[in-house]
Amino acid sequence: MSPRANFLLRAAVVLIMAMFVGAPTPGYVSGCSSGGSSVDPQEYCRGYNERTCARDRVAGRLDEPGYQACVGQIPLMCSGFNFGPGCNPTQSTVDACFSALVDPMRVGTDDISLPECQAVCGGSGGGFEPEGI
């Protein structure tokens, strides 16, 4: 075998091995596109409740003063909020819940019944249920 053919053969073997070494393993679920980043609990609480207040206003369950009161309670309700034990939702799961909450076709559906929000630690924020709203 010529030196050039030997070099090309070695280069091909190295490239093939590099593809196997660099590839994800079976069952790998935390890749770049899987939404594996963690979620800040207080940001989630604020986002969830802002959307819940807005959907209740759009659905007619709250009038304008009720909406303002609902939104006004969020900072106090969410200060110190944390997810329940064993609950660590991904950003993609939270984004899906938030999208479902603002879907105009589903505004009449109870937010706890939305499957996308059930996926966030069993629904309504990992055991968090806003009181009085």
Could you characterize the architecture of this molecule?
The chain is elongated and about 85 Å long. The chain is 51% helix and 0% strand. Residues 18-35 and 125-133 have low confidence and may be disordered. Helix 2 (41-58) packs parallel to helix 4. It has 133 residues and is mainly alpha-helical. The protein has a domain at 37-118. Keywords: Signal. Residues 1-23 form the signal peptide.
Which descriptors apply to this entry?
133 residues, mainly alpha, 0% strand, signal
Write the topology of this structure.
Layout: H1 3-22, H2 41-58, H3 64-78, H4 91-101, H5 115-118
Helix-strand makeup class: mainly alpha
| Number of helices, where a helix is a run of at least 4 consecutive DSSP H or I residues | 5
Report low-confidence residues grouped into runs of 5 or more.
18-35, 125-133
Distance between the termini: 80 Å
State the helicity in percent bands: 40-55%
Helix-strand pattern = HHHHH
Can you tell me the overall shape? elongated
Main β sheet profile: none
Classify the beta-strand content into a percent band.
Answer: under 5%
Total strands: 0
Rg calculated over all Cα atoms: 24 Å
Mean pLDDT: 77
Keywords: Signal
Signal peptide: 1-23
